Amino acid sequence: MWELIRANKRRSLLLFVLMGIGLALLGFAIGYFVNPAGMGLDGVIIALLIWMILSLISYFNGSKILLSASHAKKVTPDVHPQLFNIVEEIKIASGLPAMPEIYIINEEAPNAFAAGRDPKHAVVAVTAGLLSRLNRDELQGVIAHEMAHIYNRDIRFMTLAGVMLGSIVLISEVFLRGMLYSGGGGRYRSGGSRDGQGQAIVMVLALLVAILVPVFAGMLYYSISRKREYLADATGVRFSRYPEGLASALEKISGAHIEMKSANKVTAPMYIALPFQKKKRAAAGLYSTHPPIAERIRILRSMQGAGYMNYQEAYRTVKGGQAGIIPGSGLKEAGDAGIRKAFDDRPGADEKTVKRNTGDLMMAVNSYTFIDCRCGLRIKVPPDYGRGNIDCPRCGARHSIEK
Amino acid sequence: MVPVLIILGIILILVIWLIAIFNALVRLRNQVKNAWSQIDVQLKRRHDLIPNLIETVKGYMKHERETLENITAYRSQAMEASSVGEKARAEGLLGGALGKLQIAVEAYPDLKANQNFLSLQEELTSTENKISFARQNYNDQVLFYNNKIQMFPSNIVAGMFSFTQEEFFELEDKAEKEVPKVSF
To answer: Which of B41, B129, B142, B168 to mutate to test the interface with A (most CBs of A within 10 A)?
Structure first.
């Protein structure tokens, strides 16, 4: 399995080099246009500096930023013992060195993401809606997919690549706006005895670079992002040995049709499925971070086994052609594996129960106390409730509150 | 002078290469050991859960005496087993008996509503999963290690320092056989 990670690293290095060249080219073009005497070198240096600073910030604070943006709350095992059990199961299956921290997001939309710079500093976050909708096998499928991202070192890579893309977009946007407001960059000109025609050519070239580089860098980034999603599906299934779990979880996630309130364009690539509905045209296009969910489900359902080789075959069957998604060296090492039987085939709860469970879960996350009264009523006491006892609103029995 | 240097250079490269393969073999062997201890931890956890489980279900399950007795017997067999093969056999039987119990529970609605039993059941399910995942990981590690020992050129180094192949952890019980094993 190490071979697959190594192959991933080689591929990501190539992407970094390509995007880095794009960034340098952008810096060069703008630098040369603004200050021809510097031969574009100052532009390159400034572009690289911007990228390095943003990278450092996101490398050390990336998951913190992501977690606070999504209002995720760190939880202890007693809030949801099953979730902790499942994470530990997959940790064992994957042989990862440490348990990730576990967070719950106060959202009804079913979704999940993983974050962190390496397997020892990793985070898995799931929404309350996901926990109340999925059965054990489905939840295991989702957790296995998220931990596959940790295992394949996707998180650090996608964060750093995302920052690189962000720097490119930022620099070109600042430049293009500057051009727009200054009416063709006239105020940048040092008023020397330069040939007007030459200057115009440089300007057109700089404009072209500033427009095209972000487009190509974006396409590169999004295509890698989609590949990593497929790969995480394949790796996750290899851990859980149960493709149907993830397939039916994805079905429920896409069937819920609830948008996440706390997700935005920047955090979207981190989630297991797009947190909001896109316009149909864009969802299948070059600018999507996720492969179409229906296609992922079809691939998972046509798997004949749970190994990488089986995923590769299923991928080819569904997509047609001979293009592979998994690097050959990964296939050699751990290509084949059987599918296990279902542990949990209970159908999901109905919408009303889901809503109630989601609410209860969020109260547990926010450290409410639950008291079951003899009359059958469940009293939910908020953490800031001052007194030591409470009367049941239905039958009037008195209960003491243990902290 | 030059030929001597060339020969020395070749020897140096050979030594570095030898060290690299040796270290890779040691790393793989340690991974196998680590994976084995993972299985052990989970098997112990299952042994610890059983007395509590029996205590909880005893009062409800009047007609499953045999199954419960089997579980207790297999548990002590498994705890006493010394070799890998013996242990695998006893644990396989224990897993099978526990599976039977899980199915039998369906006939006792009172038991299924018992909060204590429900959390025990989740613990037991999770422990079963952990055992099968730990076994899966162990067999993967054994496979990588055995491959390295058999393949050229690392087989030479393995022979020199007597690295020996490890046993796979297979379960004997037929019902448990459905749980996947790695095969090439």
So the answer is: B129
